[in-house]
Amino acid sequence: MTETPTPAAEGLSMPPEWTAHERTLMAWPCRRELWGGQLGAAKAESAGVANAIAAFEPVTMVARDAADAQEARAALDADVEILTAPVDDSWLRDSGPIFVVDHHDEPSRRVGVHFGFNSWGDKFEGYENDAAIGRRLTEHVGSEVVRAPLILEGGSIGVDGTGTLVTTEQCLLHPNRNPDLSKDEIERHLKDYLGVTRVVWLEQGLVEDRDTDGHVDLIAAFLGPDRMLLQRCAPDNPNHDNMARNREIAVAAGIEVVDFDPLAYTSVDGEEIVASYMNFYVGSRFVIVPTAGQPDLDAEALAAIDAAFGGTKEIVGVPGVVHAFGGGGPHCITQQVPALG
After folding, report:
1. How far is CA 158 from the centre of its chain?
2. Radius of gyration of the chain (CA)
3. Could you give the residue ranges of the DSSP H alpha helices within the chain?
4. In the prediction, which pLDDT does 1 show?
């Protein structure tokens, strides 16, 4: 299949995360310079996420070589598919394809939009394989590929399924992504390639977000059309003012905001990190939520997420501290492939 630079969204749009998935795409952690002595623990957490998802839907795990494939096979449930393909690390939400669909066609049409990837503004050297994996995975699931003229990570956006996309100015307007594009031009590309009709620009992500320049999936998640779960912080937290401003913007845009208070702090290798419960992954029947090993706070977060979804999904907590050390969580390491009906 050949990439083309034509817009994808004529009649197609990005479905919300909670609609049915054909499968979930993941990748086995492998970048030693990021994980250091935590690489083994990162693999164990990724296996935990994959096995939790596999109880509900198919999972494909990308492994960079035969040795990693063998290691992954030993850690994963038997029905998880292993795909050997070159990758630089495991953040497929950001480097993988973003799918748009049109269920009005017969048969339904699905297109993988392959955005540019530059390792979050050249944060890490050597990302050629991750920059190419979107096309490879789209072909693997049997979909058409289009190439978008925009550097974009999937963790920097969220959609509600009725035309609204949310992002942060901190990330999408950062000069290390698309320095030659204006805000209006970036917004036009989002509409052209993802089939949205409006973009809600929050301002800042978490101040502790060291790598992604304010990804929205650490602070916000749509629960339904024009309804959003949004991180809130106490007055003595350094994120308080930014989160309060984001709330003002969302409300002014007509979004119903459900406030979310739990935010965990812990340390890994002597480094204090923030572990965002908001980096959860949603399917039609489940929510995979990272936990921080703090029983009371974990229980509060799981209960709040269950209530936010109205008790309609199975809430599954998985260990997430090491992924948080790496800069993300279950949402950052997964990418959904929408089902075709």
Report:
1. 8
2. 18
3. 32-35, 39-54, 66-75, 92-95, 119-122, 128-140, 169-172, 183-194, 240-252, 295-308, 321-326
4. 44
How does residue 104 score in pLDDT terms, banded at 50, 70 and 90?
A: confident
Domain total in the chain: 1
Question: Does 245 score more than 80 pLDDT?
Answer: yes
Q: Which residue matches tokens 């490879």?
A: 136
Active site residues: 332
Residue 68 to residues 1, 8, 50, 52, 63, Cα–Cα distance (Å): 27, 34, 15, 20, 6
Which pLDDT value is given to residue 79? Answer: 97
How far apart are the C-alpha atoms of 260 and 162, rounded to whole Å?
23
SS3 150: strand
Q: Kind of pairing, strands 198-202 and 220-224?
A: unpaired
Distances from the Cα of 66 to the Cα of 29, 43, 70, 72, 83, angstroms: 14, 16, 6, 10, 10
Give the CATH number, domain containing residue 252.
3.75.10.10
pLDDT in tens, 109-128: 999 999 999 999 999 999 99
What's the chain's average pLDDT?
A: 95
What's the rounded Cα separation, in Å, for the pair 251 and 21? 30
DSSP state for residue 59 in the 8-state scheme: E
- Asked if 318 and 281 count as a contact pair (C-beta separation under 8 A), the reply is no
For 210-217, what is the mean pLDDT?
Answer: 95
Work out the burial of residue 266: count CB atoms within 10 Å of its CB; fewer than 13 is exposed, 13-18 middle, 19 or more buried. middle
Question: Which pair of structure tokens corresponds to residue 290?
Answer: 């990272």
Tell whether 217 is covered by a domain: yes
Question: In which domain, by residue range, is 260 found?
Answer: 21-338
d(CA 24, CA 334): 6
Between CA 197 and CA 190 the distance in angstroms is 9
